[in-house]
Amino acid sequence: MSGQVGVKVAFALVFPGQGSQSVGMMQPYLELAQVRATFEEASSVLGLDLWGMVDNGPAEELNRTVNTQPVMLVAGVALLRAWRACGGQEPAAVAGHSLGEYSALVAAGALEFADALRLVQYRARSMQEAVPEGTGGIAAVLGLDDDIIRAVCAEAAQGDVLDAANFNAPGQVVIAGHRQAVERGMAAAKARGAKRALMLPMSAPSHCSLMRPASEQVRVRLAAVPLQPPRIVLINNVDVQAPTDPEVIRDSLVRQMHAPVRWVEVVRALAARGVTHLIECGPGGVLTALNKRIAPEVQAVSIKDAAHLHQLATTTQ
Questions:
Q1: Residue of 237, 24, 234, 18 whose CA lies nearest to 111
Q2: How far apart are CA 288 and CA 303, in angstroms?
Q3: What is the per-residue DSSP string for 243-293?
Q4: Minimal CA–CA distance to 74: which of 97, 98, 48, 41?
Q5: Which residues pair with 175 in a beta bridge?
Q6: How are strands ordered across the β-sheet holding 196-199?
Q7: Contacts of residue 117, Cβ cutoff 8 Å, sequence gap at least 6
Q8: Which residues pair with 234 in a beta bridge?
Q9: Strand ranges in the chain using DSSP code E only, listed in sequence order
Q10: Using CA atoms, how far apart are residues 25 and 282, in angstroms rounded to an integer?
């Protein structure tokens, strides 16, 4: 990220979701005291050893939806707290990819961290129970236009559920539904010229209509969770809007579970608001690779390690 000390830039923090997790992913940030402290706080709230899961695995356990979702929420908030602790300025806007929207809500002051933890844990359990492990599938398809993907889903469903789930970048769309339908969709996509089609390490098929029962369960739980109007502009996934009414936010979080993630539009909406820099507040760099493809005119970076976080916090002041 270029920039000089004292030159204020219009930046947004963006938070990754499922698919960015990996064993050992927080090791580059261990020098930041807030990282381990945030994981310990979260582990106490949920009664789980989240740090042990992230640091030691096994990967199969980390990749289970019921574990991945809380872990990725904590990872994003941990780096957010470290950013603020070293003097990083508040962003002009925030957004999160799928589950990452909950980290963004915490960043925007709309949702308390402890409430977010319990809510995300409940969300993950509801999703996993809605579609037993092995029943659903989710896959990335590379190299096809969005309309062709939609046609592939319609063709390969054959009475099962198969939906376009994530519009991640131009030519990169995730499909989700019943596992056999996803496999048929992968084959159909390759037949239509897809460069690649690969299953993703997720145990629940997010953002497809199989999630409707889970989303209704979450609707009931959300009604009891305190939400405040965001203090920072937050562009959501489902409508690519920035609602401030807590009731509208609740409804968008419910619909987000069974509707596609419109990440391409989210990034372009941030750019349209004058954001010139996108900083991925989480491990892995997955969003940064997407963001560079979506909006080449915007400078997109990920936080590589503790020293890099300090550098970025300084250059955005």
A1: 234
A2: 10
A3: ---HHHHHHHHHHHTTS-B-HHHHHHHHHHTT--EEEE-SSS-HHHHHHHH
A4: 41
A5: 139, 164
A6: 162-169, 172-178, 136-142, 196-199
A7: 42, 45, 46, 70, 73, 74
A8: 94
A9: 11-15, 93-96, 136-142, 162-169, 172-178, 196-199, 233-234, 277-280, 299-302
A10: 9
Note the pLDDT tens digit of each residue in 272-290. Answer: 999 999 999 999 999 999 9
Whole-model pTM over 0.85: yes
A 10 A CB-CB count for 7 gives 10
Residues catalogued as catalytic: 98, 207
- Locate 238 and state its tokens: 């489902």
Q: Which amino acid is at 109?
A: G
Lowest mean pLDDT among 69-78, 219-228, 308-317: 308-317
CA distance 35 to 74: 9
Q: What is the tens place of the pLDDT at every residue in 55-64?
A: 998 999 998 8
